[in-house]
Amino acid sequence: MISWIERMSVVAGVIASLLIGVAIVIVCQMVFIRYVLVGSTAWQTEVVTFSLVAATLLGSSWVLKERGHVAVGLVTEYAPSLVRRIMLAMADGVVLIVALILFWKGLEVTLEAWHGNWTSDSIYEFPMWVPYASMPIGFGLLALQSVACMVKVWRDEDTALIGGV
User: Disulfide check for 99: which of 4, 70, 81, 143 has CB 3.0–4.6 Å away?
Assistant: First the structure.
């Protein structure tokens, strides 16, 4: 089960990086249209914004898997192994609680947008449930990855226990 969760986090990380790549290409295209062709853009800003937000939310589980988040390791670096494991498990537990709350609220907003046929205010009228769906998906994966990290910590398989990255 842990390996399946970690594979899902890697897939989400790949999708997040692709979304960032798409956003970069669209920004370049938008600049070309505006300043070279002196045209207007209708959908680009919206898609770039949605892509970057989705990339952030979807990529969070991969960042947790890699223990790539910003952390002050001064205390955990010099703590005995058992204390370090307890601190890491507690931190992962806090992540789990926050991720579950945001998963639930994100799911509520996404379903409300779906049932209410919410669209963006632009001419394009993008269906809002699509970008909102990145909230429950991203936070759901983050919650699962935090559980996987807690299991790895207690099994003594977490690289953060051996000095981390």
Answer: 143
- DSSP letters spanning 37-96: S----SSHHHHHHHHHHHHHHHHHHHHHHTT-S----HHHHHS-HHHHHHHHHHHHHHHH
In 3D, which of 98, 92, 114 has the Cα closest to residue 158? 92
Say if CB 10 and CB 62 are below 8 A apart.
Answer: yes
Angle between helices 44-65 and 2-35 (to 10 degrees): 150
Are the C-beta atoms of 44 and 29 separated by less than 8 Å? yes
Q: Angle CA(131)–CA(99)–CA(121) in degrees, nearest 5? A: 20
**Average pLDDT for residues 81-106, to the nearest whole number?**
91
Residue 135's identity, in one-letter code, is M
Separation in Å, CA 34 to CA 37, 101, 111, 133? 6, 41, 36, 30
- Rounded-to-integer distance, Cα 7 and Cα 146, Å: 14
